[in-house]
């Protein structure tokens, strides 16, 4: 058994669980349980790779402050690893994200700044631009830069992809991902293109996000910011997203996403975060459309405990017209 010396050694190697109660047609649908990472999301892998690559290149030294713009989970991964390795963390989070993520970040010692969710990438107030400003104003700082940093997709190419391939004995027909930075879908696309070229990368995009239209029509429209799931859906095309790997795209409404995680918890006992509702809804559509049996993989991207006060709270769901 590998010796566990630190929480860092617990990042990755997450289990794959087969869905039992949903109608998946002739397909098998598997969930990669990324909620079981120590920071409770898929972004721990990315935070670790970004920090370790920056250590190797000499961009981080022992008094560095790591700065990042985040929907929450990358910030949590960075805050956790920064704590373990002795760096400081400053995190800019979108103001529409669950307040529990802010408390979690603060509990891990990160300095948290909130930025507006309803402004486009050209605005000074856009969270990525706010993080850039904070980085420029902070001495000895390092911008993790998940939207541009190649370490982000490469974390998935080097760890998530090989794990999935091994767990399914090489029989992986499709992987369904959302896009926040595009790191997951692009890193996995690159891995499977070499290792298993028939494997299809499928996009699950929240309604209102711009990624599906870019994939299908090569147009960039304005985002309408109406999606309520956290961590996926975009108002710009990040450098880390390689559209060429995406074979097919599904648009998923708020109603479908929140209903799916509710059923997942009730029937399979898995308390997933809200983005997983979008991914699993799209994966189920893809499964039902297939004419032959396939192994399809998607993700429990993060833990539902962060969203107990929203996604699993009937008062909030009613307020948002979701029940
Ligand atoms: N789900 C959740 C909950 C996330 O926080 C993120 C990252 N923002 C994603 C999915 C999307 O991953 P990626 O950045 O690799 O596109």
Overview in brief:
The protein has helices spanning 43-56, 73-85, 99-107, 127-137, 151-167, 183-195, 211-217, 254-268, 274-289, 314-319, and strands at residues 16-18, 28-33, 65-70, 88-94, 111-115, 141-143, 174-177, 200-206, 246-252, 295-300. It has 323 residues and is an alpha/beta fold. Helix 2 (73-85) links the parallel strand 3 and strand 4 (88-94).
Strand content: 15-25%
Strand order of the largest sheet: 1-2-10-7-8-9
Small molecules bound: 4'-deoxy-4'-aminopyridoxal-5'-phosphate
Number of distinct beta strands: 10
Rounded average pLDDT? 97
Low-confidence blocks of residues: none
Number of helices: 10
Helix-strand topology string: EEHEHEHEHEHEHEHEHHEH
Alpha carbon gap, first and last residue = 47 Å
Radius of gyration: 19 Å
Q: What is the 3D shape?
A: globular
Query: What is the helix content?
Result: 25-40%
- Main sheet specs: 6 strands, mixed
Secondary-structure-based class equals: alpha/beta
Could you characterize what this model shows?
The chain has 323 residues and is α/β, with parallel strands linked by helices. The chain has helices at residues 43-56, 73-85, 99-107, 127-137, 151-167, 183-195, 211-217, 254-268, 274-289, 314-319, and strands at residues 16-18, 28-33, 65-70, 88-94, 111-115, 141-143, 174-177, 200-206, 246-252, 295-300. It is 37% helix and 17% strand. Helix 1 (43-56) crosses helix 5 (151-167) and helix 8 (254-268) packs across helix 9 (274-289). The chain has ten helices and ten strands. The longest helix is centred in the middle third of the chain and has 17 residues, at 151-167. The structure holds 4'-deoxy-4'-aminopyridoxal-5'-phosphate.
